[in-house]
Each structure stands twice: as structure tokens, then as C-alpha cells.
What we know:
Helix content: 25-40%
Number of strands: 9
Strand content: 15-25%
Amino acid sequence: RKTRLAMTLGAVLLGRSRGLLLQGPSPSQLDAFSVAPMMDYTDRCFRSLFRLLSVRTTLYTEMVTANALVDESGQRRGPLPPLALEHDDGELKLTVAQLGGASPRQLEASARLVRDYGGYAGVNLNVGCPSDRVAGAGCFGAALMRDPALVGDCCAAMAQGFGGPCSIKCRVGVVDRVDDLRDLTDDGAYRDLADFVDVVHKGSGGVVETVIVHARHAVLAGLSPDKNRVVPPILPHLVERLAADFPHLHIVHNGMVTHYDDCPTRIHLREEEEEDDDDDLDPAAAAAAAAAG
């Protein structure tokens, strides 16, 4: 399965597109082109493959839980887990460390470890993982979408510890059970998403400027992580609407971008980019957060 995924994402990486940054300030390398963090996939070896395909791609680590790095007081637990923060970027600084947790103290200390390790472009808070181990017993991941004020506090702490950018990766929303998906309306779902983003941005003191949105709801009980990437319907129009209403933020599309041909249906090019000469295009595709996760 990992080999098939590598081939699929490789096809996206080697295409010719400008990315899925939908709206906002002129996109940086971190925003315009990235491969999503995926548990059990985007480890150091897997990221090395993609770095061979493109030196202009932003890569994300697997989620590293803050609790595995530091204790409740913020003290380092001991040696880092094998390969937890290792990467092969050299001077590129185009890898972002994704952290998981719900304690601002632990997340700040973990972000400081990322900073001290060196070479990372930023830190990202996982607010989208629907796994029972994370969103259930762990009370973080997608479950955090129900507490945007805490997400803002966590991101402010992470930015303080890292001394640089902190982004979030979330879903368009969360429900308890699959049956709850039938009761959703577009306007209601969008209102909850927009309120969440607004509270997080303001609550973080403005440090959250990039929001990567997997355009599906997360079902917190009764679905495996794999099923959570298939059963909830894909809702790209909600992400596009969010981008239009938050032009001061970088809104990045994630979910079901499996081939270069998918990109034109998910992309809003800035006017000046449309006028760029094709010779200026990066041979690597600008496919934001390809695949899912």
C-alpha cells in the first residue's frame, strides 16, 4: 500500500500546477505545495523519497505526540523516540513538525525541542486526527475542534516555544457518529468551521496564519481512520468559502488530491499568477496536502 501511495503522490509531485492555496497573501513555499502528514507513512524514509522528487515541496512529519517527548511539567522524558524528529533537508528548511496534544505547556516544550533539533521550517498542531486513541482517550486531534479557545492557546504556546510559525491542520468539522452526518447542512457546517477558525486565529494572538483543511468531517466514534478518509463526503466548497471569507489567512486545501488532473478543480489562481510565464513554473506540482490524513 505504501508503494502504491508513493507512486500516486509521485505523479502529483511531478505534474505542473501552481498549488491549492485558495486565497490570501502571496503564497510562500510552505503554503503553496505540501504533502500531508500521514501516520505510519510520512516517516523519515518516505519523506526522503519525496525530497528526491522535489526540492521545493513542503513535507510534514508524522504526528509526534507531545506526551511522548515531555512530561506534564514540560520536562524532557529522555532520549527522543527513534526517527521522531530526524529529517534530511539540510539547509532547505522545508519540513514542518506536526505535534499532537492538548496541553499548552507540553506543546510549548515540545516545540522548543523541535527548534533545538534544528532545520525545521515550522510546527503544526494536529486538530484533525479522528483515531479513537487520539480524539477519544487522548482528547486531542479532531476532538479539539470543539474547543477552539484551547487550540488558540496551544498554538500560541507552540509558536512561543519554536520561535516561528505555527499552523493547524483540521477537518471541516466533527460529529459523534456516522448517522449525524445526515443532519448536517452546508450553512450550519460552514458557520461552525468559520467560527472555529476565527476563534483560533484571534485566540492565538494572530500567530496562526495558515489553516490546512481536510475537506471532510471527522466522525469521532464508530469509524476507523481509514474509513474517516472515505465515508464522510468531501466538501471542497466549504474550504473555498472559508478562503473567500478569510483573505488575511492562508487557507490550504487537503483531501482527495490524488493526481495532477485533480488540481484544476480545486484551485483559485491569483490574477498575477495567471499572468506568469510558464517558464517560471516549478516542474514539481503545487498540490497542497496531497492524499489525505
